[in-house]
Amino acid sequence: ILGILKSGGAYVPIDPKYPQDRIHYMLEDANLAIVLTSNTSKDLLPKREEINIVDLDKDWTAIGNHSNTNLSSQTDSKSLAYVIYTSGSTGRPKGVMVEHGNIVSLCTSCDYITLDADTVCLPTGSISFDATTLEFWGPLLNGGRLILSDTDSLLDTQSLKDLLLKHSVTTLWMTASWFSQVVEQDVSVFDSLTYLLVGGDKVLSSSTNKLKGHNDALQIINGYGPTENTTFSTTYTIKAEEGSSIPIGRPLKNRSVYIVDQELNILPIGVAGELCVGGAGVARGYLNQEELTKEK
Fold first, then answer.
1. Long-range contacts for 181-185 (Cβ within 8 Å, ≥24 apart)?
2. DSSP output for 163-195
3. Residue 255 to residues 103, 107, 247: CA-CA distances in angstroms?
């Protein structure tokens, strides 16, 4: 990924665990000319002449023969950084085009978390999930450290606990359901952390209350937002015992949130409506779907 961005290109993360027809659709929809893969995942790819498949398990010798000097990059804040495909729960997956400036707005000069040279982050999500935007670039853009691990080590609670302690991990992101599961198994897993970000679904107050009761110093953050607004639109720091419903909080300092009616008029406090998000996180649009981009 670092190499792709340094070259001025954009990356499209594809989880090899996806169904093969979904993988083929994403390759075709994104019109990918180069695919970086491993020997174990190569068989999932279509055999087409127009796709240049680079096997990272065996092609390092050829890669190493190229120059190692820095390229003259023309990248700026409006350059495309990645395309992440949504789940496709309402039809075919949509490719969301996120720019460099969108990532910088999420990961630098943050008001919802401290990211600096002392930050140590252990990414937990699939490479095709937009939480990696914060997990990868949060530490790397702020002089911090990134710890990489295989999935099996993450999903085993004792192994996860060992990883966090061994590397003095300060910052962790988890899905809400996984977080609740780990809290029930061993609430002390998170003892090394300064920040725990939870999201992707409704966060249960029973889980956060149990963890805060064990470790009141830990800052637990409920992060909310769609891929189209670059991972987080709003955050809420859970400081004490919460009631049955945990708020999604307030917008990041460079984001905006509006609650509107069907005609997009802003509604008074206490009136239910549609949540619209904006600001520096708003992505370029949907790949190959100009009309849908204009609509949204």
1. 182/157, 183/207, 183/210, 183/211, 185/157
2. HHHHTT--EEEEEHHHHHHHHHH-GGGGTT-SE
3. 12, 13, 17
Q: Tell me the torsion sign for CA atoms 139, 80, 227, 128.
A: negative
Strands 52-55 and 34-37: parallel
Other CB atoms within 10 A of residue 280 CB: 17
How many Å apart are CA 28 and CA 51, to the nearest integer? 10
Q: Pairing mode, if any, of strands 120-121 and 80-85?
A: unpaired
Can you tell me the distance from the alpha carbon of 293 to that of 296, in angstroms, rounded to the nearest whole number?
Answer: 5
Cβ-based neighbour number of residue 97 at 10 Å:
20
Q: Encoding tokens for residue 136? A: 């990868």
The DSSP bridge pattern shows strands 274-279 and 255-260 to be antiparallel
Nearest to 30 by CA among 49, 48, 13: 13
Beta-bridged to residue 171, according to DSSP, are 121, 195
If one counts every other C-beta atom within 10 angstroms of the C-beta of residue 59, the result is: 12
> pTM higher than 0.85, yes or no?
yes
Which single residue is written with the structure tokens 């659709």?
Answer: 25
Alpha-carbon distance of 152 to 155, in angstroms, equals: 5
Query: How far is C-alpha 276 from the chain's CA centre?
Result: 20
Q: Which amino acid is at 181?
A: Q
pLDDT in tens, the chain (296 residues): 998 999 899 999 999 888 889 999 999 999 998 999 988 888 888 887 788 989 988 888 888 898 988 888 889 999 999 999 987 666 789 999 999 999 999 999 999 999 999 999 999 988 899 999 999 999 999 999 999 999 889 999 999 999 999 999 999 999 999 999 999 999 999 999 999 999 989 999 999 999 999 999 999 999 999 999 999 999 999 988 888 889 999 999 999 999 999 999 999 999 999 999 999 999 999 999 999 999 99
